[in-house]
Amino acid sequence: MVGDWFGCELASVFQPIVEPAGGRIAGFEAYLRVHGSGERELSPWALFSSNADDGRLIALDRLARTVHALNFITSVEDDGLLFLNVHGRLLAAVSEDHGAAFRKVLDALGLPPDRIVIETPVSASSQPDLLTFVLRNYRLNGFCTAVNLASPAQWKALSQVVPAHYVKIRGDTLTPGDEGHAETLQSIAQKATVVVTRLEEKTTALPASALAQGYAYGLPAQRAAIAGPERFALRCFAR
Fold it and tell me: Where are the alpha helices (DSSP H) in the chain?
């Protein structure tokens, strides 16, 4: 399924998030693919940046997440999780009750909100007060939550205030054999599930409960059931 945003088609690809030891897929992160006129592929971030008005940004973000949710429920038969990114500007643009509108969409689709992990960008982790407020709202609406860290050291400023179920950190910020990084990962693992991302080689140097994401564990791709979908446009949802 694709969404239509003023002539641009919004589609989904999904990258698996796995348990590295056994390879079981715990969930998928959805990424947006945008095609303009003539099937030109456009940058999703360029599309979001071109919508300077907060109201249009909110509508675009909700449309993208709805497209992902529809494609997810038509292609994943198990009880896996769906990780959905929210644009950084949306966190401040919505003044309260984050996730309430999207919860209504999920209820209509019959998709339990606790299978959705709302993922905030790295930039949000530099604003602990706003991040804490936003994540609490999402949790009150039944969602799981995930934060992205710029580095292991950033966790020290967030660990006591941020109510996240998942903490994502890039593999290229971790130094193999660095005891400080290992201790930080263990500290995170006491409060949340660690997801190490952008892994281009498989590794065993992760906490026992950690999840892995990256090319070594699976590329972003359309799920089999939506590789040739009946084209269905969600026209400017929530405008």
Answer: 44-49, 54-73, 88-93, 100-109, 128-140, 155-158, 179-189
Q: Does residue 52 sit in helix, strand or coil? A: coil
Place of tokens 């130094």: 175
CATH value at residue 151: 3.20.20.450
Q: Is the pTM of this model over 0.85?
A: yes
User: What distances in angstroms separate CA 40 from CA 9, 34, 36, 130, one per listed residue?
Assistant: 10, 8, 5, 36
Report the alpha-carbon distance of residue 118 to residue 127 in Å, rounded: 17
**Average of per-residue pLDDT across 137-152:** 92
Distance CA 115, CA 30 (A): 13
In angstroms, rounded to a whole number, what is the distance separating the alpha carbons of residues 153 and 180?
A: 9
For residue 228, what pLDDT is reported?
A: 38
Residue 179 token pair: 């005891």
Burial of 21 (0-12, 13-18, 19+ CB in 10 A): exposed
Number of domains comprising the chain? 1
Signed CA dihedral, 185, 188, 193, 196: sign only: negative
Parent domain of 143: 2-235
Please give the Cα distance from 24 to 75 (Å, whole number): 17
